[in-house]
Amino acid sequence: MDHSRRTLLKASLLLPLAALMPLSLLSSFAWGQAASTSMQTLALAIHSEGGPHRLQVEVAETTAQRQRGLMERESMPEESGMLFRFEAEQPAENAFWMYRTLIPLDIAYIDEQGRIVAINTMQPCESSTPRDCPSYPAGAAFYSALEVNAGYFAERGIKVGDCVSVPEIAGYCQPAD
Predict the structure, then answer these.
(1) Where do the domains of the chain lie, and which CATH numbers do they carry?
(2) C-beta separation of 66 from 84 below 8 A
(3) What is this structure's pTM?
(4) Of 125, 126, 127, 123, which Cα lies nearest the Cα of 150?
(5) Which Gene3D superfamilies does UniProt cross-reference here (predicted)?
(6) 30, 43, 61, 120: most buried, per Cβ within 10 A?
(7) H helix intervals, the chain
């Protein structure tokens, strides 16, 4: 028996075993695969009256990365976050939710010019049913969203109208006067 036939035979024997696995285990495996895809990390700065606030952020650019977000993380370093980037403008009614997210987060929705157009504080959802988790709509059209630990924006006086710059992507911006 040649090598390729042996591989095919082994795979066909394992297929029925996969069907016997609980769906939750298969789902966990799929989420684990999504989590293992490495995300780009970038430095960004939020420009506000209190000066620039620098963060190291993971960048969620693919659908799988955006769906996974910060799910199941028990903590996040203070000067860290996750930047969700979209290919096109997202409508004001688009929302984020906290299903399977364990830590409270602030989210800033950011327009095409890098201006923060909305800020929400999101609490973890303790429900095991996704539809029972609240959603947090932007209320304004946006191109990206930035999640950080809850309280980060308020503690630093960051507000709607402040500017987010990502030098490696879009250059530099200044807060509105």
Answers:
(1) 1-36 (no CATH), 38-165 (2.60.120.1140)
(2) yes
(3) 0.75
(4) 123
(5) Protein of unknown function DUF192
(6) 120
(7) 3-20, 23-36, 63-68, 152-155
67 vs 33: CA distance, rounded Å:
13
One-letter amino acid at 84 equals: F
Residue 69: count of CB within 10 angstroms of its CB: 21
Per-residue pLDDT of the chain (177 residues; tens, 9 = 90+): 555 444 433 444 443 333 333 333 333 334 344 444 578 899 999 999 998 999 999 999 888 888 787 777 888 899 999 999 999 999 999 999 888 888 899 999 999 999 999 999 999 998 988 889 989 999 999 999 999 999 999 999 999 999 999 877 665 565 555
Rg from Cα positions in the chain: 20
Amino acid found at 77? P
Would you give the DSSP letter of residue 56? E
Dihedral of alpha carbons 11, 16, 19, 22, sign: negative
Q: Which residue has the tokens 């430095």?
A: 43
